[in-house]
C-alpha cells in the first residue's frame, strides 16, 4: 500500500536528489525547497524511503495545478504516480484540477487519460519543438469515509 504524507523540510534532500535523477540536473532544487516550505508538496514513501512526490499549488490562473509529479525510476509503472494523483484530487481545494506535460511525455499523458483528465489546450514555445499539453479534471468531492482510494494517508 502506498503511504502518502505532506512533505517536511527534512524530505528536501531526498526530493531534490530524486528530481535531479529523473530530470538530469539540479535546476529545480530551490523551487522544490520553496514548494515544501509552502506546504505544496506531498511524498509517497515505502518504509522510510521516499519513492515519489507531487507538487500542487494555485499558480495556474488561480486554479489548482499539479506542477510536478516524479516517481523514482525503480518504482515507476507500479501505480505510485496514480496514487499521488488520486491523493491530490482528494485534497484539492477547488472543483477542478489541472496539470500539464510535454507532448513527448507519453507516460504522463496515458496516466491523465486513465484518470479521466481531458485535454484542455496546448502551449507552444515553452520547450522548443515539444509543446506543453494542458489537462483538466472536474473533481468530485467525496466524504473522507467514502473516498475510494488504496492510499493510506497519515
From TrEMBL:
| CDD domains named in the record | NAT_SF
The segment(s) forming the N-acetyltransferase domain are: 2-140
Q: What is this protein called?
A: GNAT family N-acetyltransferase
Q: Which PROSITE patterns match?
A: GNAT
Coiled coil (UniProt feature): none
What InterPro entries would the database entry show?
Acyl_CoA_acyltransferase, GNAT_dom
Q: Which organism is it from?
A: Brevibacillus choshinensis
The transmembrane residues are: none
Amino acid at each position: 500500500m502506498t503511504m502518502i504524507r505532506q512533505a517536511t523540510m527534512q524530505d528536501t534532500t531526498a526530493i531534490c536528489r530524486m528530481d535531479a535523477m529523473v530530470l538530469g540536473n539540479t535546476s529545480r532544487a530551490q523551487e522544490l525547497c520553496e514548494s515544501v516550505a509552502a506546504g505544496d508538496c506531498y511524498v509517497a514513501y515505502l518504509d522510510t524511503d521516499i519513492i515519489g512526490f507531487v507538487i500542487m499549488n494555485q499558480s495556474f490562473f488561480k486554479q489548482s495545478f499539479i506542477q510536478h509529479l516524479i516517481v523514482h525510476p525503480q518504482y515507476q509503472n507500479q501505480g505510485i504516480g496514480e496514487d499521488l494523483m488520486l491523493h491530490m484530487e482528494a485534497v484539492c481545494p477547488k472543483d477542478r484540477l489541472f496539470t500539464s506535460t510535454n507532448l513527448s511525455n507519453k507516460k504522463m499523458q496515458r496516466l491523465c487519460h486513465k484518470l479521466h483528465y481531458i485535454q484542455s489546450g496546448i502551449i507552444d514555445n515553452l520547450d522548443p519543438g515539444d509543446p506543453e499539453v494542458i489537462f483538466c479534471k472536474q473533481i468530485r468531492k467525496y466524504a473522507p469515509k467514502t473516498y475510494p482510494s488504496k492510499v493510506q494517508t497519515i
